[in-house]
Amino acid sequence: MLRFINICLVLALVVLAYVTYEGTDKARALDENIDGLLKNIETERDAVAELNAEWRLLNRPERIASLAQKQLKLAPARPAQLVTLDMVSESDFERIRMEATDESIPAASGRLTKVKSVPAAAPANLDDDLPAPPLAAAPDVPKPAEPKKKHLLAYEQAEADRSAKKTSATAPTPTETKRYFKVKVRDASTLEVGLLPTDTVLIRLEGIKSWEADETCKRQSGTSWPCGAKARTALAHFIRYRAVACTLAPGGESKDFAARCSVLGQDLSTWLVRQGWATPQPGAEPELAKALDAAKTQRLGLWQAE
Q1: What ranges in the chain are assigned the alpha helix state H?
Q2: Which among 74, 87, 200, 270 is placed 20 to 30 Å from 131, CA to CA?
Q3: The pairing of beta strand 176-180 with beta strand 244-248
Q4: What is the mean pLDDT of residues 203-225?
Q5: What is the pLDDT, as a whole number, of residue 125?
Q6: Burial state string for 121-132 with b = 16 or more CB within 10 A and e = fewer than 16
Q7: Rounded mean pLDDT, 207-235
Q8: CATH 2.40.50.90 fits domain 176-305
Q9: Secondary structure of 148-183 in the HEC alphabet?
Q10: What is the 8-class DSSP label of residue 283?
Q11: How many other CB atoms are found less than 10 A from the CB of residue 7?
């Protein structure tokens, strides 16, 4: 009997220990979940603060005023343009109706001559139709002689055509800038835009070469480290939730294209090279080469392992 009681007590202790362990594990998981939610809330607050700062920067009154003056060409209203109804007389309506009856009519020579109507007696009612103005024939003016067309020889015409093609080829092509929101970073040199897979647009940063997100690099000691993931994380933290402005190619936007992009005026290609997470492509501009030298000097990014 005593042995049976001992066995029951041992089983009860085992069950109690299991329940206690399971409750502790669930409590730990809930704590981790709460910590993650708090971090996400803090991240969202930072993102909202950055968006508010960017909105205040773009919504400055002096910036809107300069854009309105440049694009809309508006002018402030003058006091002389404001009148009341008692300041308008019948003569003003008469003058407007007389100006509305002025028209251009064809003359005998085929030219258009503007003829003003002769003012008639004012009608009793302003809504009555005015009599038609008399027509005046314009004097016959001889047409100017057309300039004689210069006839070119075959080789002269070919030279003129080559010069025209060269001029059109050297003319600068207008570029278009587009802003993208909710940009995802696929790797350090590729951005992804679009909510649905069918609407995805890939933007490859122009002028640089970086590593894929799953690539690794080796230090001098021989150990490997995830340089591709580190570069991707650095670019994602720099962009965060801010808008990315990209210069489109002359052909416009496509599903996969290369462009120079920036965030608040900071060129992303230059920033990645300066932070040591990318290298310039052959033939890139001197600014990228200077950024690469600075990153190597300070041992940033990929160059910290050397």
Answers
A1: 2-58, 61-67, 90-100, 154-170, 227-239, 268-274, 286-298
A2: 87
A3: antiparallel
A4: 86
A5: 45
A6: eeeeeeeeebee
A7: 86
A8: yes
A9: CCCCCCHHHHHHHHHHHHHHHHHCCCCCEEEEECCC
A10: T
A11: 10
pLDDT tens, 18-48?
A: 888 888 888 888 888 888 888 888 888 888 8
With tokens 């890939």, the residue in question is 202
Token pair 């220990």 is found at: 17
On whether the CB atoms of residues 305 and 218 are closer than 8 A, the answer is: yes
C-beta atoms surrounding 171 within 10 Å: 8
- Each domain of the chain, given as residue ranges in start order, spans 176-305
- Tokens standing for residue 268: 């992303």
| Structure confidence at residue 51 (pLDDT) | 85
The structure tokens listed for 129 are 């139709």
Q: Which amino acid is at 155?
A: Y
Q: pTM, whole model, 2 decimals?
A: 0.45
Q: How many CA atoms lie within 13 A of 205 on its CB side?
A: 31
Q: List the structure tokens of 293.
A: 């030298």
Question: In Å, what is the CA distance from 103 to each residue of 57, 99, 121, 135?
Answer: 52, 9, 20, 10
Expressed in percent and rounded to 5, the helix, strand and coil fractions of the chain are 45, 15, 35
